[in-house]
Amino acid sequence: MAKAKSQRSLDRWTKQKWRTASGKKSSKTGEVYAPAATIRKLKSTAAGRKKLAAANRKKREATRRGKQYAKHGLHKGKRR
Length: 80
Prior knowledge:
Layout lengths: L4 H11 L2 E2 L6 H4 L4 E2 H8 L2 H19 L16
Helix pairs in contact: 3-4
């Protein structure tokens, strides 16, 4: 039986290599997790590095406030 669209999407999502920009644990650095390809693309331009830094600031602030999730906007506008 064929998988539903949502199941195929989840399969693709899980196969991506998710990491932080530094490669260290987010619990130690407070950085956002994103697919390695996205991080590589963001780090390649000045605007991307600025966007990544802003996302990390928002993530650290949310963590300080005791929030599990942060609305950092890094994944905003991505197809889901």
